[in-house]
Amino acid sequence: MSPDEKWLIYSVSRNNELSTFVLNTETNETKKFGVNTLPEKCVFSQSNFNIVYCGGPTQMPRVTLPESWYQGTVSLNDNLWKADLSTQNYEQLLSDREEVDQSFDMTKLAVSPDDEFILFVNKKDLTLWSLEITNITR
């Protein structure tokens, strides 16, 4: 849920397929979210609540999610995305293995108060990562 409670991101799992949606609580309109992911892999901007950053898997496994992910029986390989929910624009900020030759299963995402950095834990090895986003966002 966005801090202003306007946006709700949620996922539905059916027949080992995950679909992600966004609900505008002001208009009660639901749309398919442009990044198929778990809501736990998303964090809202601190300065613009229409902006959300999400770790989105490069390939979604055909397993029971989110249970398999919570139990640690499946690991995801995430790209980092920036989504503007008001315009439905999506921008990929970081590709899996792009900059550090490492694969990320992003969790516990956080945005710095000035929207300069995204922090996340890589669930694969529990390392903490920081990415400066002011230089890569347009």
Q: In summary, what is this structure?
A:
With 138 residues, the chain is mainly beta.
How would you characterize this protein structure?
The chain is mainly beta and 138 residues long. The chain has one helix and ten strands, in the order βββββαβββββ. The strands form three sheets. The protein has a four-stranded antiparallel sheet with strand order 4-5-6-7, with no helix packed on it. The longest helix is centred in the middle third of the chain and has 5 residues, at 67-71.
Question: How far is the N terminus from the C terminus?
Answer: 24 Å
| Quaternary state of the chains | single chain
* Biggest beta-sheet profile: 4 strands, antiparallel
Stretches with pLDDT under 50, minimum 5 residues:
none
Number of strands: 10
**Largest sheet strand order:** 4-5-6-7
- Assign the structural class, choosing from mainly alpha, mainly beta, alpha/beta, alpha+beta, or little secondary structure: mainly beta
Topology:
Elements: E1 7-14, E2 17-24, E3 29-32, E4 42-44, E5 51-57, H1 67-71, E6 78-84, E7 89-94, E8 106-111, E9 117-122, E10 127-132
Antiparallel strand pairs: 1-2, 2-3, 4-5, 5-6, 6-7, 8-9, 9-10
